Fold these 2 entries.
Entry 1:
Amino acid sequence: QVQLKESGPGLVQPSQTLSLTCTVSGFSLTSYSVHWVRQHSGKSLEWMGRMWSDGDTSYNSAFTSRLSISRDTSKSQVFLKMNSLQTEDTGTYYCARNSGYFDYWGQGVMVTVSS
Amino acid sequence: DIQMTQSPASLSASLGETVTIQCRASEDIYSGLAWYQQKPGKSPQLLIYGASSLQDGVPSRFSGSGSGTQYSLKISSMQTEDEGVYFCQQGLKYPYTFGAGTKLELK
């Protein structure tokens, strides 16, 4: 069955870099796009960017040049790296498969930016 | 960016009651709209896509309608398990954007 699972540190210091991994199973990264979506505590969802099935990437301009998404198809993993973290980057980070819409989501990883 | 405005922000409904949630886009999104349900501590789950298509496994009491800039989600008979937060999302243009959410509680 289709599964996505995020992993990464729960605590990051301000100005540091966040590195998250999304490990997928049940489908191929060369057939579907995988996106990253962020949610501030109890609030709405914010689309961050995506890794397309052909390896192309697209980012939300709200994150300017801070965000980078890459993948390792041999390991079925998609990576998120975001630098210059601030306290307002605290939230839950999800990866989700998109087949037109977000039909499968990971369970999310809670990230706190604090010194 | 396309702005998505949801209403109401919260509502409570009795068992068996019909519930309607509205979503308005800042421009025509040509039915490129999805609805998600999120329960506390869980990730969002896709309910409706393409404005009116029911995702596999979703109960038939959920339905979506609308066109242009105005869309709605209807629950025909409120059940206990329908409590949660509902989000609309436009999938027409990047960046994809979501509504602020509607919190649905059982009265």
Entry 2:
Amino acid sequence: NAGVMQNPRHLVRRRGQEARLRCSPMKGHSHVYWYRQLPEEGLKFMVYLQKENIIDESGMPKERFSAEFPKEGPSILRIQQVVRGDSAAYFCASSPYSWNTEAFFGQGTRLTVV
Amino acid sequence: AQTVTQSQPEMSVQEAETVTLSCTYDTSESNYYLFWYKQPPSRQMILVIRQEAYKQQNATENRFSVNFQKAAKSFSLKISDSQLGDTAMYFCAFMHENQGGKLIFGQGTELSVKP
């Protein structure tokens, strides 16, 4: 059973470009969570999704950021018109039901905006 | 709002010795979960141990154990017989029972195990 897969592992974008980060949850997991880790800080919650539904997006910046988890395929975190402050590691986690059951993190995508 | 504080940015320990990492949190809720995660240089977030607030018994996982003091809102991690592979960032995290997946993390403690 493969773990949570995130790709790419590293992504470099120029200011103003779009960044798309993908997360494939573990088999059988229908709950996906995105977190952001700025340098020298802990992870901060961004959004919680189930298939085709956003459950909690209270941690998402109001502009430029969006997330989806379609019926088929991976979850996507999309950042439009990236700025230097978006440079961070973005982590995805998945769980079979809610987080009260065991959840697993992916290895993260390190986004660098130049 | 809930907050999690780790007051030790860095710690070091000799191999085979015991070390305790501190964590305090602030909440007005009574039902919640607490976690310790390990982040080695590979950046992978690995669950070390979890504690349900309603359980009085401290959780243990092999060499890892916690001292959960609910009244004091303290949740420290003890690592016994430290190994070189324990070198990593350690994050304490809080999650309210009804906010599945929305963890609140502390700032982290960088632990170095020295040979």
